[in-house]
Design a protein that fits this description.
15 strands; 8-stranded antiparallel β-sheet; 5-stranded mixed β-sheet; single chain; alpha+beta; elongated
């Protein structure tokens, strides 16, 4: 019970800090909101300010638990002293109110689901992304007392404005506190939608739309996990709301608040960037003067600039981990970005015309459900007949326009407030809205979802986890009994010495271990390490082929091998070793050689290291002009260029060239002879050596991972030792020679 109480305290503390920061900001901007608006809009505004404060503490290496809590406490005390909410809460609100019967009925539905949600958020965090990178990075920031350059997890490169709010919560109450903070955003979103209904004089519309969103199954499961999707929905709706407030009042303070929230939207999630041009365009259209637009832009930049600057300085890419072909860097491979974004565009769905049915009724492929009510979402178009409907649907459609970037159901959550309000406005008649709320509540209750949705659709289980939430079932036992991956990370925590990192071929909930988990696909470093590991068992990628370019003896200072055709089917060009010969003798490699490569210059040394376990790769589809280039530093006689490579390249076409004294590239040969090649030593021992060089001394493999059987049947041939085994996961030690 103590652990549960501390988790709740951590969440309440964080929400209190956000509301205090927001209230003080509203007071400083001389903004007075309506009573129903003050808490939801104040908290979201405060969240933007608080996230910036946490960012500053982490960048300055002040991310100590005591410092984070101390700064938050001072913020709350300042608000208690200044009492910025008193003027608003004591103000008269002339907006219409819900009839008592309607208020009781809708309130009962809200409380019923809130009772379910709060215990789901309160129980030990076991969501896939929440227990891994969302809280894994938060835990690491707190362990290291700061935000440092992380090159082994591409999620660390993404702006994480919501996740930083988990830092104070996690510092106090660990995982559940963070999930409860996200749940607070779900409640804030519902309150903001309801407040908007009151602002436009139709509280029944606001109440129904709030429940349309709040009861949606994907909102229930995502909003009670340590994710950020529901918080992002609250933020983008707040941008819209502040535009409405500014349009009604035309104050500079409203412009400042608008700019801060619009910038925070992008800092929270890249796909929410559309709210910033929308806000700028709306202000420009309404005022037709540059100064109000500039105020919004500058305030937005305050939120965005820290993330852009961090990524540019640390990762050489202001929009990392994307656009890696524009901002080339050694941290994320362009091929990974291509494969990753292609998957997010489809989620394995062959016919995208089935997406509406998938996200509403099935959810087994898109990871979540909106519920059958949202099959009626086109009804929102009928709200275009009203001014409010036209204003609502434009940002909703803008957010929908970026949805194809990731067709997971939860990426529709930011659209829901706008379309739900549009649907409610289109219907408007309270009895009909009440019937729809009842239908949505019944079909969205977890035990009912199981009757109409596939068994693997992502939604809440239906049984309210009181005992787990209150820790009558201890957290470790609860997670141990439910999640084999949790058991795997606890095995790592128990057997791996402190400071050692572990290469994992599959993702793990690394927030439950203090060790750095190198997930195979999450960075360029991890992908190279995994490629090296696979070299010991996958014959197709081992150096079993050689391409020899033979030509009359030439005196050359600089020679290169260049790709001459576009490869097919995303085929890469790879080279294990590039060698040069004269009169049948290999030219000895020297330190003064200057090595160049395109498009992956950072790994060029791998083609000159005499290791069969490493290879230089383009890490993107081979294109004409890709090259490996060697400057010998002096004139050198050469009559043969040999490439030792693998047999996984069928459409790569190469040419050997030399640079003449005038700086022109002259063809030496474009018809290489293909020969068989064989490495005399043990490639597996070479793999082990390369892993040790990269300080990868432990490996965790699940039975269904590629290569798992090869490691298991003869670990001695690799110089691996089995340290422990848990369920279907084996922990190996990479032995020293």
């Amino acid at each position: 019970m103590l652990q549960a109480s501390v988790a709740l305290l951590g969440a309440l503390f964080t929400v209190g800090v956000c509301y205090a920061a927001g209230s003080l900001t509203l007071q400083g901007l001389n903004l007075r909101l309506r009573p129903a608006e003050h808490f939801p809009l104040g908290m979201i505004l405060g969240a933007s300010v608080a996230h910036l404060g946490v960012f500053a503490l982490l960048i300055l290496n002040l991310g100590y638990k005591q410092v984070v809590i101390g700064v938050g406490t001072l913020t709350i005390l300042a608000a208690v002293w200044r009492r910025p909410w008193l003027a608003t809460l004591s103000a008269k609100d002339g907006s219409p109110r819900l009839p008592l019967a309607l208020k009781l009925a809708l309130g009962a539905v809200f409380l019923l689901f809130t009772n379910l949600y709060i215990f789901e958020a309160w129980k030990p965090e076991d969501s896939a992304d929440g227990a891994s990178y969302h809280l894994g990075l938060v835990a690491r920031y707190l362990r290291e007392h700061g935000m440092h350059k992380i090159v082994t997890n591409f999620y660390a490169l993404i702006s994480s404005g919501v996740d930083l709010l988990f830092v104070p919560a996690f510092a106090i109450g660990r995982h559940s506190a963070a999930a409860l903070v996200h749940f607070a955003f779900a409640m804030v979103l519902a309150l903001a939608i309801f407040a908007y209904g009151r602002r436009i004089g139709k509280p029944w519309v606001g109440a129904a739309a709030a429940l349309f969103v709040y009861l949606a199954p994907v909102v229930g499961i995502a909003g009670t996990s340590a994710y950020n999707d529901v918080a992002v929905a609250a933020i983008v709706f707040a941008v819209f709301y502040w535009l409405e407030i500014w349009d009604a009042e035309r104050t500079t303070g409203a412009l400042v608040a608008l700019g801060l929230i619009a910038g925070y939207a992008l800092a929270a999630k890249y796909t929410a960037f559309v709210m910033l041009p929308y806000a700028l365009g709306f202000v420009a259209w309404k005022q037709r003067r540059w100064k109000p637009v500039l105020i919004v832009a500058v305030c937005a930049a305050v939120m965005i600039a820290p993330w852009v600057a961090r990524n540019w300085i640390w990762y050489e890419n202001p929009v990392a981990p994307f656009a890696n072909k524009v901002f080339r860097n050694p941290y994320v491979h362009a091929m990974f970005e291509q494969d990753y974004t292609e998957y997010l565009h489809r989620y394995g769905i062959q016919n995208l015309w089935t997406l509406p049915w998938q996200v509403t009724m099935r959810g087994d492929k898109t990871q979540g459900l909106l519920g059958p009510l949202f099959l009626a979402a086109p009804l929102a178009l009928a709200s275009l007949r009203s001014r409010e409907g036209r204003r609502l649907l434009l940002p909703g459609l803008l957010l929908l326009a970026v949805y194809p970037a990731n067709v997971g159901t939860r990426f529709l959550i930011p659209c829901l407030p706008f379309f739900s309000l549009g649907m409610a406005l289109a219907i408007s008649w309270p009895p009909a809205l009440m019937a729809l709320v009842a239908f949505h509540a019944i079909t969205s209750w977890p035990s009912m979802i199981a009757r109409w949705a596939p068994p693997y659709a992502w939604h809440l289980s239906g049984r309210i986890p009181y005992k787990a939430a209150l820790r009558e079932i201890p957290q470790d036992r609860y997670l141990h009994d439910r999640d084999y991956q949790y058991r795997a990370v606890r095995m790592i925590q128990h057997y791996v010495p402190e400071g050692e990192r572990v290469l994992a071929l599959s993702g793990l909930p690394d927030s439950y271990t203090s060790h750095e988990i190198l997930v195979s696909f999450q960075s360029a470093f991890n992908e190279v390490a995994t490629d090296i590991l696979n070299m010991g068992w996958e014959d197709l990628i081992t150096p079993t082929a050689a391409l020899e370019f033979r030509f009359p003896t030439q005196t050359a200072r600089r020679i290169r091998v260049v790709e001459t055709a576009a490869a097919e089917k995303k085929e890469q060009w790879s080279v294990h070793e590039l060698r040069f010969f004269a009169n049948g003798t290999e030219i000895e490699r020297k330190q003064e050689w200057r090595l160049r490569a395109w498009p992956n210059p950072w790994d060029v040394q791998m083609a000159f290291d005499n290791s069969p376990a490493t290879r230089w790769r383009t890490w993107e589809t081979a294109l004409p002009g890709d090259y490996l280039d060697v400057d010998f530093g002096r004139d050198q006689q050469v009559d043969e260029v040999r490439i030792e490579t693998s047999r996984d390249q069928s459409t790569v076409r190469l040419r050997a060239e030399m640079m003449d004294p005038q700086g022109r590239w002259i063809t030496l040969s474009d018809k290489p002879v293909e020969l068989d090649s064989h490495w005399p030593g043990s490639i597996r021992r070479a793999v082990t050596h390369e892993l040790r060089l990269r300080k990868v001394n432990y490996l965790i493999v699940e039975d269904n991972d590629w290569g798992a059987m090869e490691f298991a049947k003869d670990p001695e041939s690799w110089d691996f030792r089995i340290v422990a085994r848990q369920d279907s996961a084996t922990l190996y030690r990479v032995m020293q020679p």
